[in-house]
Task: inverse folding
């Protein structure tokens, strides 16, 4: 179910991106900023001070009762769009889910702050079975089987319970892929999920899908690709006996160090396996400066940088304010850049970027202006 709400217009900066250059050039930032795990109390302190707009890891501060009680209220107005394309592959192995009104989808049994929303991208490999299983069973996996926490206010306790619930959901999904006879032991999938509860944005990621937030035109990566190019992830992987060759698992056509499924690999390593299903989390408190979130499979990010994707989508939204069209245009842009993989893009808007229409005045022809001038001169000479 997709529910659109009336958006609120906010001022924006013009950002330029050279759309067909791999070394993307933008006017606001040379590279996207990356988030580390952020404490709720740190986020609140950051929002209370204009000089601390950028999100960083900081020292502990005293606990708070709720996020909303500590900062000025901003209510996201959520709209989203999505588009997927097979690209140049023989088979489509991507799946995704998009729910703008989670409370309406789940019913009165679940209690969340409003707005509440749920998004997910599942990028399958070695067959579509694992990704299709995740899409088909997502609501049960993430909400019904794990005693998903409920609350009317977002506080530290809820955040901890939310992470524990999502961690359990990813683990149980991994085990389900091992035991379901409809899923090949060779099939696996990456998974990125994003949740909005009131002003809280929570992202949980396993693999190399990516979520990127636009904050006043600047890209903020809300997830880390689990690839050997990520030094700490490669170190973790190799310490458990795994190894890469030219960016892929040696003797296997797999480029990620975390995934759901792939049990033929996990069994071959024994326990503990370096290929794990443990998600990494990043969360923040949304402000009026947070404009939209892009979620895409690795096929998007192999050909478009985080900052350039943000710049392109921001420009398109200012023209027509249509996230569905933006998602399609982003996929087409990746295809223009010679992307060969399956392609999936989701755009989640938190406010409207549509440029306000200029007031149109009355225009007079040259003949009318001359006539008016003569009339005024005659009136002045009387």
Result:
């Amino acid at each position: 179910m997709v529910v659109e709400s009336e958006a609120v217009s906010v001022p924006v900066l013009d950002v330029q991106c050279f759309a067909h250059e791999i070394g993307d050039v933008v006017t606001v930032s040379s590279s996207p900023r990356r988030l580390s795990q952020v404490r709720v109390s740190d986020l609140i302190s950051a929002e209370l001070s204009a000089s601390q707009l950028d999100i960083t890891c900081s020292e502990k501060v005293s606990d708070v009762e709720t996020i909303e009680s500590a900062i000025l209220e901003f209510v996201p107005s959520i709209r989203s769009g999505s588009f997927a394309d097979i690209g140049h592959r023989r088979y489509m192995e991507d799946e995704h889910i998009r729910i703008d009104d989670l409370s309406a989808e789940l019913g009165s049994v679940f209690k969340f702050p409003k707005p509440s929303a749920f998004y997910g991208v599942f990028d399958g490999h070695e067959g579509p079975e694992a990704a299709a299983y995740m899409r088909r069973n997502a609501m049960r996996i993430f909400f019904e089987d794990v005693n998903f926490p409920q609350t009317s206010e977002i506080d530290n306790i809820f955040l901890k319970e939310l992470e524990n619930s999502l961690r359990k959901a990813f683990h149980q999904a991994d085990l389900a892929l091992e035991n379901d006879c409809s899923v090949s032991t060779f099939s696996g999938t990456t998974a990125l999920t994003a949740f909005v509860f009131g002003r809280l944005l929570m992202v949980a990621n396993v693999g190399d899908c990516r979520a990127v937030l636009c904050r006043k035109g600047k890209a903020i990566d809300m997830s880390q690709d689990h690839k050997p190019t990520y030094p700490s992830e490669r170190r973790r992987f190799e310490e458990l006996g795994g190894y890469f060759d030219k960016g892929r698992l040696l003797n296997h056509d797999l480029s990620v160090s975390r995934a759901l499924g792939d049990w033929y690999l996990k069994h071959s390593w024994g326990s503990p396996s370096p290929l794990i299903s443990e998600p990494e989390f990043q969360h923040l408190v949304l402000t009026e400066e947070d404009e939209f979130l892009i979620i895409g499979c690795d096929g998007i990010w192999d050909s478009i940088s985080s900052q350039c994707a943000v710049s392109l989508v921001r420009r398109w939204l200012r023209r027509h304010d249509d996230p569905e069209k933006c998602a399609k245009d982003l996929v087409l842009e990746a295809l223009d850049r010679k992307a060969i993989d399956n392609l999936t893009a989701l755009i989640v808007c938190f406010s409207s970027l549509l440029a306000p229409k200029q007031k149109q005045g009355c225009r007079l022809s040259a003949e009318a202006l001359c006539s008016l001038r003569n009339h005024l001169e005659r009136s002045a000479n009387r």
Summary: The longest strand covers residues 116-125. The two ends are 72 Å apart (CA to CA).
